[in-house]
Amino acid sequence: MSQTPEHILEQLRALLANAYVPYSHYPVAAVIRSGSGQLYSGVNVENAAYPMTRCAEQSAVQGMVTAGEQRIDEVWIMTRGKRAGTPCGGCRQVLSEFGEPEVKVHCYTEDGLEFHTTIGELLPDAFGPKYL
Description:
The structure is a single chain. Strand 3 (72-79), helix 3 and strand 4 (99-109) form a beta-alpha-beta unit. The longest helix is centred in the N-terminal third of the chain and has 12 residues, at 5-16. It contains 4 helices and 5 strands, in the order H-E-E-H-E-H-E-E-H. The protein is of the alpha+beta class. Helices cover 28% and strands 27% of the residues.
């Protein structure tokens, strides 16, 4: 997969169509770049048993860890709506366990609205294995 910003946005738009969201009707797609430069993607997958629902960011991280990697270097997220959605609280924690506070998080809507932040700005009081 090419790593140009334009290609990542194209990939996110294509992924968005694959989200399984029969309950919220709020599709989310995510692409993360690991420490090795490899890209991993995911979409949200809802389930009638709500705790079994998986967020797009968690799906991408799962693919990265399954491939043997444990470091996030950049994150891209796309949603539908009138403003660019940011990761939920649980995803912020997951991202913080694999990415440093300065890792960039790029949030987009399908229509091109955007918001840029960092993991540290999203979750300033993160905790993880190194803190426990």
